[in-house]
Amino acid sequence: MEWFYLFIAGLFEASWAAGMKYTEGFTRLYPTLITAAFMILSFYFLCQALKTLPLGTAYAVWTGMGILGTAIFGILLFDESCDIGRIVCILLIFTGVVGLKFMC
């Protein structure tokens, strides 16, 4: 169950990171409220996962998922670069996250 919590925490982490783009510096009320809710949910699920997972592993996976999700959101929602170098680097991060999952 802890890996499920960590996965959900990572999804919310990427969502709040992408959501900050919509807040325009926290000047727009509804995007700011949604982003804040995603932050709280991300931390909540991370805390649930930390009850049994090692801190270093959980934090690395959480931030790795945030990096991956944010990069994907950037490409899909904000027309950011999708060149081969960027894709290779994103896949390297993904490989590290998967490796941590199977090492614990």
Brief write-up:
The protein is an all-alpha fold. 84% of the residues lie in helices and 0% in strands. The chain has helices at residues 2-23, 29-49, 55-78, 84-103.
Word description of this protein:
The chain has helices spanning 2-23, 29-49, 55-78, 84-103. The chain is mostly helical. The longest helix has 24 residues, at 55-78.
What's the helix and strand layout?
Elements: H1 2-23, H2 29-49, H3 55-78, H4 84-103
Helix pairs in contact: 1-2, 1-3, 3-4
Q: Which short descriptors sum up this protein?
A:
84% helix; 104 residues; 4 helices; flat
Mean of residue pLDDT? 92
Count of discrete alpha- or pi-helical segments spanning 4 or more residues? 4
Q: Which range does the strand content fall in?
A: under 5%
Please summarize the sheet with the most strands. none
Helix/strand order, N-terminal first:
HHHH
Instruction: Give the overall form.
Output: flat
How many strand units?
Answer: 0
Distance linking N and C termini: 14 Å
What is the CA-based Rg, rounded? 14 Å
Helical amount? over 70%
Unreliably modeled segments: none
Structural class: mainly alpha
